[in-house]
Design brief:
single chain; 537 residues; alpha+beta; Rossmann fold; Hect, E3 ligase catalytic domain fold; three-stranded mixed β-sheet
Length: 537
């Protein structure tokens, strides 16, 4: 069984195992976990290990080579399961230092001790890595992971990314000048500014995070939770302090005014997008034992707060939105309609196509470098192969001429093993080149786009809401008393409703095309007897 480890390549581990199988005259199967970590406590995240344990239970594996016992696991819980499986099925374990027979009490004790030592080493290594990371951060190095929007990682330090930083400054400038987050998002999407998460649209949450992040005024806090220590890390300044403070003041006032700092206990998919088309009030939601509906709260608020209201409340007093909408029914109809429009949008398809092509171009540039390295490996291995073949030929000649002393069978076996190893490496290079060629084949970006949209049907409620923040401006709700139905005017942040492609040369689509804008609005009608509260409720 092989697994990546610093200082010991997968190829080296694999070849050591193959040599051991040849030495013992066993057939071999390679169980390659690649970069999977033996730290994991969850066996289900290691499918190769699961398959191996299954074969052990079936009695198909009786001898197992691992470069080191910690390749199996460095986790107490996982290791106890593996050890029990090996012991109960009489599996003999081989390592780079020797043979371990778990049916032998001394070997069993030794393997247990090796496991404890391995786990101790792992904890020390983890602690050293964590402290090393904290020390690096104290020196101004970046903590790791994707850099924040507006920056790039150069030599493990954050530096300004000019292509992105100009838009960061634009966001702060627009918000400081009184424009809304919705307007900022519209500008970014219209200019096809790609967010860091590599989706073709911005969400309100992403913009709000940028407007709140202290990193843009030159610092952020990094906390080591285990040590309980916090260090303030300096970063390149993208926004001056006066601008940042002014933006924070406006954000706080806006949140207080809109009651965004609230005590809502329930999740509402559409409430924050919905506006009453009769009075302009933001819609509210109510979830209780028998009530699940969106409604205009103006009549309710006027009744509670307005001193001019006299007498008892009656339907229609305060706002003519007198019927509410069932939450489940409304959510489903709106969600399905939005997915259908997004899937058919030529604007979003074109943005997706350009992003795919950008990634393909980047991948092909990288593949050129990989291809050169593989070709260099191939030449070196072919040279090794010729040398081994020549050595074998010289050896056989010396045997025929009786010029060789020693055990010829043992020497012949070693030479043949070396020959097989070189051929195995050459075969590996062939497989890597084939994989590289396959990865560079034509990409069906349209199928990818449609599959990506279809996959959103399985989103969680929170993922759905984040997606909607990226494509919606608002949903204006009207109630038609005569027809007893609601109409939901869905307003998108881009004109993607019934947009079209116009080919520059209809007879030759390959000559190119342009996207003709559609509408940014779509209307859904929802009869009350299907989507609203029952009469009398």
């Amino acid at each position: 069984m092989v697994q990546s480890e610093d200082g010991t390549s997968l190829d080296t581990q694999k070849m050591d195992g193959i040599r051991k199988s040849v030495e013992l005259d066993f057939d071999h199967v390679v169980w390659n976990e690649g970069g999977k970590s033996s730290h994991s406590s969850d066996i289900e995240t290691r499918p190769v290990l699961v398959d191996l344990l299954s074969e052990i239970e079936k009695g198909n594996v009786k001898h197992l080579y691992v470069y080191n016992t910690d390749r199996l696991s460095r986790n107490d819980q996982t290791w106890s399961i593996i050890r029990w499986k090996l012991k109960s099925n009489d599996v003999v374990v081989y390592t780079n230092t020797g043979r371990i027979d778990l049916s032998n009490p001394l070997d069993d004790l030794l393997m247990g001790l090796l496991s404890e030592i391995s786990q101790y080493d792992n904890k020390i290594r983890t602690e050293r890595s964590r402290r090393g990371k904290f020390f690096k951060v104290q020196q101004g190095f970046y903590q790791g992971g994707p850099p924040p929007y507006g920056y790039k990682n150069e030599k493990k330090r954050l530096v300004e990314n000019p292509e992105e930083s100009q838009w960061v400054r634009k966001m702060y400038e627009m918000y400081l000048n009184g424009q809304s987050v919705h307007e900022i998002r519209r500008l970014l999407n219209q200019n096809q500014v790609t967010p860091r998460r590599k989706k073709p649209y911005w969400s309100l949450g992403s913009i709000n995070k940028i407007l709140r992040n202290t990193i843009y005024v030159g610092w952020y806090d990094y906390t080591d939770k285990k040590m309980g220590e916090t260090v303030c890390v300096e970063t390149p300044v993208l926004v001056d302090r006066i601008t940042w403070d002014s933006v924070q003041t406006r954000i706080n006032k806006t949140q207080e005014r809109k009651h965004q700092i609230n005590r809502s206990k329930h999740f509402y998919l559409l409430r924050d997008f919905m506006v009453c088309g009769h009075c302009g009030q933001k819609m509210s939601g109510k979830i209780g034992a028998n009530n699940h509906f969106y409604y205009c709260p103006r009549k309710e608020r006027n009744w509670v707060k307005d001193d001019n209201y006299e007498g008892t409340w009656d339907r229609g007093r305060g706002c003519s939105m007198v019927r509410s909408l069932n939450i489940g029914r409304t959510d489903q109809i709106v969600w399905d309609s939005i997915l259908k429009i997004v899937k058919e949008s030529k604007t979003l398809r074109e943005q997706y196509r350009q992003e795919v092509l950008r990634k393909v171009t980047k991948s092909r540039e990288k593949s050129v470098s990989i291809s050169k390295k593989l070709e260099k490996s191939r030449k070196s291995l072919k040279k090794d192969l010729r040398e081994v073949e020549q050595t074998i030929a010289d050896f056989e000649t010396s045997i025929l001429l009786k010029r060789h002393s020693g055990d010829p069978e043992q020497i012949r076996e070693k030479l043949n093993q070396e020959l097989e190893l070189v051929k195995e490496k050459l075969s590996g290079v062939d497989q890597e080149e084939k994989h590289l060629r396959d990865s560079q084949r034509w990409v069906n970006w349209l199928d990818q786009f449609e599959n990506d949209v279809d996959s959103k049907k399985d989103y969680s409620d929170e993922e759905k809401k984040e997606f909607l923040e990226g494509v919606l401006e608002k949903i204006v709700v009207h109630y038609d008393k005569d027809q007893n139905k609601h109409s939901l005017e869905i307003e998108f942040n881009l004109p993607i409703v019934q947009d079209e492609l116009s080919y520059l040369n209809p007879g030759r689509p390959i000559d190119g095309w342009e996207v003709l804008e559609g509408s940014s609005r779509f209307v859904n009608e929802l009869p009350v007897n299907q989507g609203g509260r029952p009469r009398g409720s």
